[in-house]
């Protein structure tokens, strides 16, 4: 193996910082997605919980423009300028709020090019709490076309229900097609050719009963489906294309899969499956996956107990990144030490924004960590607060730090800030 579990790279780097204003501190348990960041060769864009979206020059971090998105700005994707590959021509922002708005802004001026309110399809919130708001959970682009997944949750007594829509948008904002289900999408990914879109569904509690669907991007037609075949509503945590293969992290059985065309299972590995420890049955969800060049990395999250949501135990594979080769053989594994909100990738580089490990409440877990897909850990940037979003483009890395206050301490750690630096 290239590393030993729990080890950190010997070198540390200092990132430039830009304050983002005030934000209620996170508590011992990780909070929902409240921030977003994206970066290109010439631009760093942040999305904030109050809806503020700011585009900054990548070299100086001086603001180019600032706009207010209609909802909480919780996701960002950049659409390339056709004339200058790698530079942003437009910025797409995903919202969580009353409208569930997707808006695209001109990368030079911030002028809004178009807006689409997903609440028109998934419905309006039936309760004034964050979990019931329409939520655009994912954006994907091939540089020109934009794809999105939106969902809304509601509950009436014991009856729980999801409403969701997957979208394909043309450059002018017109909807080319939609794919609607009564399940909860959590991730989408495009193949390299831009011909297929994989959609991972986290919870299936209605008529839709497949954790993964693959759609033709030209038409939205269903090409094939796959499911871990487990009992209960939990199904898929994340999906990632690698040529004609799709890597899947399964919330159903806490395993990782590599699928071929049509959903044929090429291999499967145990990640954080149910494990007996000190009289408890413990497990952790594989929340993220990334596949590239015949290698697949999976990242697991928090420990849970089968009989209770509370436990003093910790699954031996919680908060772990593990990378496998084309045959499913383990290449290396490391501890990421805290909850990873989202995974940022570019080529063979993986960046993990690590938040708190709420069971041990150790502030030394707060950091941005980055890895090479083939060889393992390559860098770490400790933070006072928690890292909740990250982006990487070439040698540029960006992350969002949010303040945190552990419930049994009360001390506020860190600040709401953008952190940017170089991997070189």
UniProtKB/TrEMBL annotation:
Domain of life according to the entry: Archaea
Pfam families the record matches: PQQ_2
Domain Pyrrolo-quinoline quinone repeat: start-end pairs: 50-239
Region (Disordered): 1-27
Bias type Basic and acidic residues, positions: 8-27
Full protein name: PQQ-like domain-containing protein
Origin species: Natronorubrum thiooxidans
């Amino acid at each position: 193996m290239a590393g030993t579990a729990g080890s950190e790279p010997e070198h540390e780097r200092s990132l430039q910082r830009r304050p983002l204003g005030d934000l209620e501190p996170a508590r011992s348990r990780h909070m929902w997605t409240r921030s977003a960041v994206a970066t290109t060769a010439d631009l760093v864009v942040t999305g904030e919980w109050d809806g503020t979206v700011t585009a900054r020059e990548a070299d100086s971090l001086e603001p180019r423009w600032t706009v207010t998105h209609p909802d909480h700005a919780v996701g960002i994707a950049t659409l390339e300028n056709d004339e200058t590959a790698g530079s942003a021509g437009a910025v797409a922002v995903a919202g969580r709020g009353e409208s569930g708005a997707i808006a695209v802004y001109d990368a030079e001026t911030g002028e809004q090019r178009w807006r689409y309110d997903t609440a028109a399809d998934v419905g309006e919130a039936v309760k004034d709490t964050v979990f019931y708001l329409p939520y655009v959970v994912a954006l994907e682009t091939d540089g020109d076309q934009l794809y999105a997944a939106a969902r809304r949750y509601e509950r009436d007594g014991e009856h729980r229900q999801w409403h969701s829509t997957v979208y394909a948008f043309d450059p002018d904002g017109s909807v080319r097609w939609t794919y609607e289900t009564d399940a909860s999408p959590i991730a989408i990914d495009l193949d390299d050719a831009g011909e297929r879109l994989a959609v991972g569904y986290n919870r299936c509690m209605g008529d839709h009963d497949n954790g993964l669907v693959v759609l033709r991007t030209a038409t939205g037609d269903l090409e094939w489906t796959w499911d871990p075949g487990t009992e209960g509503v939990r199904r898929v945590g994340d999906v990632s294309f690698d040529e004609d293969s799709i890597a899947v992290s399964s919330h159903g059985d806490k395993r990782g899969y590599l699928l071929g065309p049509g959903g044929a299972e090429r291999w499967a590995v145990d990640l954080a499956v149910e494990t007996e420890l000190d009289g408890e049955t413990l497990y952790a969800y594989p929340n993220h996956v990334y596949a590239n060049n015949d290698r697949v990395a999976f990242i697991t999250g928090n420990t849970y107990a089968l009989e209770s949501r509370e436990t003093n135990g910790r699954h031996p594979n919680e908060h772990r990144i593990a990378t496998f080769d084309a045959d499913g053989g383990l290449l290396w594994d490391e501890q990421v030490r805290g909850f990873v909100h989202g995974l940022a990738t570019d080529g063979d580089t993986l960046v993990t924004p690590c938040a708190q490990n709420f069971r041990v409440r150790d502030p030394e877990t707060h950091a941005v960590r980055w890895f090479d897909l083939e060889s393992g850990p390559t860098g770490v940037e400790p933070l006072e607060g928690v890292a909740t979003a990250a982006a990487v483009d070439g040698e540029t890395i960006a992350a969002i730090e949010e303040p945190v206050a552990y419930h049994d301490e009360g001390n506020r750690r860190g600040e709401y800030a953008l952190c940017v630096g170089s991997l070189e």
